[in-house]
Input
Amino acid sequence: MISKRMQKSLEEAISIRDIFEEGKKLAAIYGKENIFDFSIGNPSVEPPAIVNDTMKEILDTQAPLALHGYPSNVGHPEVRQCVADYLNGKYAASYGVENICMTSGAACAIALLCNTLLDAGDEVVTFAPYFWEYKSYVETLYGKLVPALCNQETLQPDETTFRAAFSEKTRIVLINTPNNPTGAVYTEESIKMVANVMREMEEKYGHPIYLISDEPYRKLSYGIEIPFIPDYYDDTIIVYSYSKTLSIPGERIGYAALSPKMADVNEVFAGLTASMRYMGYVNAPSLQQKMLLKCVDAAVDVSVYEKNRNLLYDSLTQIGYECIRPDGAFYLFMKALEEDDWEFCQRAKKERILMAPGKAFYGPGWVRISYCVPYQIVKDSIPAFKRLYDSYQ
Amino acid sequence: MISKRMQKSLEEAISIRDIFEEGKKLAAIYGKENIFDFSIGNPSVEPPAIVNDTMKEILDTQAPLALHGYPSNVGHPEVRQCVADYLNGKYAASYGVENICMTSGAACAIALLCNTLLDAGDEVVTFAPYFWEYKSYVETLYGKLVPALCNQETLQPDETTFRAAFSEKTRIVLINTPNNPTGAVYTEESIKMVANVMREMEEKYGHPIYLISDEPYRKLSYGIEIPFIPDYYDDTIIVYSYSKTLSIPGERIGYAALSPKMADVNEVFAGLTASMRYMGYVNAPSLQQKMLLKCVDAAVDVSVYEKNRNLLYDSLTQIGYECIRPDGAFYLFMKALEEDDWEFCQRAKKERILMAPGKAFYGPGWVRISYCVPYQIVKDSIPAFKRLYDSYQ
Output
C-alpha cells in the first residue's frame, strides 16, 4: 500500500508513461529503425573522446581509496574551483569555491533547492509550457507549482500572466532557457522583464525570491547568444547538468552555482549541503566530478543537432505545419492538427511517428518533437509527416 | 532566506558538524597522522582490484553513447537481473528483475521509499541508537521518526519499547544490522521478535507495515551469521549499498530489493520508479551499475577491519572502558566516562582522540568509535585512551 499522494500522482502520470510503452511495442513489431521515435530527449551525438580518455586516465593514475571515497557533500574542492574558474572566465563573474555545489545533475539541484527554500504550501512560479517533472520536484517537497503561460505566438515569457502568478508565498521562479519542451531561447528583453518584475515582487512581499535558472541546454544553441542570467538579477542560482553538453545523462553530474551577489548566499549554501544528505544524495559521483577537471569546457558536436533542426523545421513548415523555430535544445514545438493533442499523437502513431503531447507540458494544443535522433530518421520521417498532414485536409 | 523547517534543522545539526570542523583544525595543527580520528565512517581498506579493472574494461569496450546514456529510471535490466541472481543464489530467494531497483546508494533507497510510502504525518519506527540521518530522510518527506530504545546492555531490539512505538500511522519499520552506530548484529531471536510484533501490528491496524532492512554492512561481519530478513517477514525491502563492501562510497551505487512475497509489490515498485524522477535522481550512475556485472560478489578484505576491532575492543576493555563487542560494521559503541557524552568527547580531544557523541545517534551516555582507520592509528591511540581513562579516576 503506497501513500495517497503517490497513488494520486501515479494515476495522473499514466498518460505520459503510455507513450514510452507504446513506443517499445511499435519498435518490437516494426523494428527500431522503422519507427520515427521523437518522444524522448536522449542525446544522440557521441560524447567527446576526452570524456572516456579522462576517466581512464583517472582510474590509471589516482589512488582508488581516495578516488572512490567520500568527498564533501558539496563535492571535491578542486572540482568546485574548476567550475567557478570556468564561469568566471566565460562570463566575467566572480564565483568562489564557496558558491559551487556539485550535484547529481540539474534535476537533483532543483530538488535540493526546493527542499532548502520551501515550507509546505510555498509557491514556485514557472513559465508554461514546462518540463513535466517540475511539478513533481516541487510537490514532492510539499510546495505548489504555479504556471505562467507564455505568449502563445512566440513562446516567450508573458508579463501579464507572470505578474498574476505571484503571491506572498512565492519563493522561487524557475526558468529554463533554451527551453524543454519548446526549444525557445529567452530573449534579453524577456530576461529583463523577468528580472524587473521579480525585483518589484521582492519589494512588494519583503523577502527574497530566488530565480533558479535551469540550463542543461545552454551549450546547445544555434547561432544565438544566451544571456547570462546573474547579470540581470542578483538572487540567481544556476543549475547545470553535463548530460546534454557531454552526452552523459546516465552518469548524473552537474552543479548549482549560487551568485555571490544573492541574498543569504551562505545560508542557502548550508541548506543545500544539508539537503544533499537529507534527500539521500550524500554527494555527486566522485569519478564523474574528477572527470570535469579536464572536460569542463568540452562539448558534443552541436552541428549534428542543428542539421536535424534545419531539415525538420524547413520540411514541416513547407508541408504546412505551424511550428516555432527552435533556437536551442533539441526540441521542436509544433501545433497539433486537432484540438486534442493527445488524439493527434495517437493518430501520428499510425504513421509510426511518436511525439509527446503538449498536455503533458501544460501546453495543450501542441506536440513536442525531440530531434535528438539519427539524421536518417529525420529524413525518412518527412513523408510520414506529409501523410499525417494530408489525412487532416 | 531559507525555509523555516530547514532553518530549524540546521540549528539542531550544528553539534555534529562541529566535530568534523574541529577534527580538521586539529589535523592542521598537529598533522593528520598525530590525530586519532575515529569520528567518521569512511572506508579505509582498498577497493578490490576488480573494481577499477572492470570500469576500465567497460570504458574500453562499450559504445560511449549507450554506456553513458539514460538507462531506465530503475536501472539497466541486465544489472538488475545480476543482482537478483546473486541474491537468489546466496539466499535461495526468488527475486526477479521486476523486484530490483538500482539506486544511488542505500540512503537514496530509503529516501525514495519514504517518498513512496509516507503521507504527511505517517510514522517510521526505528531502533535507537540509530544513524542520525534517518530522522532527516523521514522528516524531509514530512513523516515522523519514532525511536524504540534498544536494550541498553545488549544493544538488541527490545520488545517492550518496540511495541510501544506503533500507532495506526506506522507505515515503515527501519532496521540496520550490522548496526551503525553500535556495531551490533541483530540475533535471529531479535529478528523473529521484530517479525512477530510487526505481523501482529499489521493485523491490528489493517494495513501493510513494511520492514526496510538497511544493509550496507552485511558483508562486514566477523565470524557471525546474519539472518536474511525476508525469510522472517514477507513485507521486507532490502536496501543495499556497495559503499562499504567495495570501498566506493563516493560513487553512490546500491539497490532496493522488494521481496516477491510482499504486499502490493508492483504498486510499491511503480512508486519507487516515479520517486527516482520526482526526487531528481533519474537513475543510478550508469557506469557504476555496469561495473556490478563483474563485481556483484566482490568484497574488500574484511580481516583488516576485524584486526582493528580485536585490538581496540581488547585494549579498551582491558583499560577499564565498558564497551559492547561489535560483531559487524566498523563501529564500536563505548560508554562515556561522564553522563554528558558531548563533554566526554570534548575532553578526549585533549588527547587528540576524535569520537562521535552518542547524543547524535539518540544514544546519550555513549560514544561511537569508527575504527575504519589504519591499524597503526588504532595502536598509537591506546596510550591516549589510557590517559583519558586515568584522568577520570
